[in-house]
Amino acid sequence: MKQKATLKQIAKELNVSVSTVSKALSNSPEISEPTKIRVQEFAKLKNYKPNNIAVNLKSKRTKTIGVIIPNILNPFFAKVFSGIEKAANDRGYNVITCISNESLQKEIHAMDMLSNGTIDGFILSISEETQTKQDFKHFKEAISDDIPIVMFDRISDEVSCDKVVVDDFDSAVHAVNHMIKLNCKRIALLSTIDNLSVSKLRAKGYRKAVADNNYKVDENIILLTDNTEEFDNKLGFVFENDIDGIFALDEHASVMAMKHAIKKGIKIPDELNIIGFADGVWSRRLTPSLSTVSQHGPEIGEAAAEMLINRLEAKEEEAPEYVTKVIKTELRQRESTRKL
Amino acid sequence: MKQKATLKQIAKELNVSVSTVSKALSNSPEISEPTKIRVQEFAKLKNYKPNNIAVNLKSKRTKTIGVIIPNILNPFFAKVFSGIEKAANDRGYNVITCISNESLQKEIHAMDMLSNGTIDGFILSISEETQTKQDFKHFKEAISDDIPIVMFDRISDEVSCDKVVVDDFDSAVHAVNHMIKLNCKRIALLSTIDNLSVSKLRAKGYRKAVADNNYKVDENIILLTDNTEEFDNKLGFVFENDIDGIFALDEHASVMAMKHAIKKGIKIPDELNIIGFADGVWSRRLTPSLSTVSQHGPEIGEAAAEMLINRLEAKEEEAPEYVTKVIKTELRQRESTRKL
DNA sequence: GTGAAAGCGCTAACAT
DNA sequence: ATGTTAGCGCTTTCAC
Lengths: 340, 340
What we know:
Rossmann fold; elongated; alpha/beta; six-stranded parallel sheet; DNA-binding; 12 strands; homodimer
């Protein structure tokens, strides 16, 4: 192994002092042109790269963001992540990723591992278990230790920090209103993530839209579960009612509903309109393709990264107020809904 | 902000020396029981956490792995990544992730950003552009700088390092043989990633299996492209031939073929058997669900992380030989193929 | 059993 | 224009 080049070594070989080398490399005006050139060329020759860790230790900043994601296999989170990574990189930041796997323990462990100078701040979406148990101590601790957090999508009102969300409530109202305009009179509501705040907000939006249009909310065509097994077992009952629309609050519900309808020979979209929350490519690829409420994952990620970095780079005194940024969703009309 | 606790501070407040505190916290036998307890309790009270960066600077190791992935939205990579993250965490390592977005430039930039002490080693899959241009200087440089690399899936023979792959050739032979056993006589071969090494290996496997069974390889039912647009335009021509099987080398090809067949009213699997390379959940969710060659993404990731960490933690002299580990694929029979 | 001191690689205030 | 020094937070050898 060829020894890693350090300032010290270069200084010795060039018979100058360490600080001269340091200044020369950072192009300080204190250093004469000839020495600068001599040093810089020699450094390039030796393939010198300043040791990042030493720089970090000095500057007390790592230019690294800790990202904690419940599940990278969920395409929504994958999209958000790609947005975070892009925005962070554009501003010279690295991203350390941990996957909480929806577990409170892993979430705490991950934050612990990173809250020791490894990262400057966190971007995260709360795990399922954390949200169910409503245990937010670890977040509050980090914040009081002066490690800023930006939460996205799954957030908690109990924690004061920056947040990025989509307007789940309004999105749902809008989607359901759209279906009603398509002449749907009995719209089923399906979810397999009813333990999450986002699902509850979407359900509220559904109820409001239905009520506002003077239809009655029929609990027989509402199936809210927090696990896929129960959902799959009960889905059949929903179809025993007379329905002409489905509003699904997550991927699994969307796809299973569609599969079920196809198996029963129901014509989509002629007899049944379907809209689902979904971000993966597969919604386009289904036959018929699924109309979705798209959440603009990459934008969410970018916004979160921007907010965090802005806060990190703000001067002590001018730390911005905590804000919650709302990213607009978009109704993507595909083949599972009739044209207006 | 409450000051971050440091050894120095604790030492001062307790009226002992820094080294005493350090030793007490690491439970050194040099320190008397009472002082140990006093120090440890005080440290806990102050919520002391050793500054990771300082520790890194001392130890010259960061216990951090750099992962460079072409595209996290591709579920195969997402799965591999989750395997890497899990295995790394189990061994106390963190993971810094960069997304090359299939670009050589970004790949080089990412490696540059991290090759300065930030990470101890790399796990990566070569970007499309890199593979097309066959430009591997940056990999070789890292290795000669003593930063080990483990490549997975998309690898290059030109770079000597540890590798983890699936046996693309054999997998293809096996899948095609299976279709032939199902009585398929004219199996189309489809790919939208023909620029990648993996696709070429799979295509070779197809040709061998077809030839071995004494069918002739018909170029009219072989469509190998390196972009989806061209593929979508030409796919119709393949269907104008008389085919009874489809072997698709990537997600896009699999799904588009299926969609096309459904639109044409072809019965799957009765009139047409389809097998595709795919790792996402959607293959299960399609109607009919897609039979796939599953690549065991998480296992690939875990194996890669294990290999890298083992090398990192090996003593100088006993650095293991470079090996290429092959993970077996699995044929997942679903509804798009007949039962044997 | 405890402490002083050196040093990891770097920056920057302060000499010269 | 160049060099000396101190120090970031920690570990570790060597004195006491």
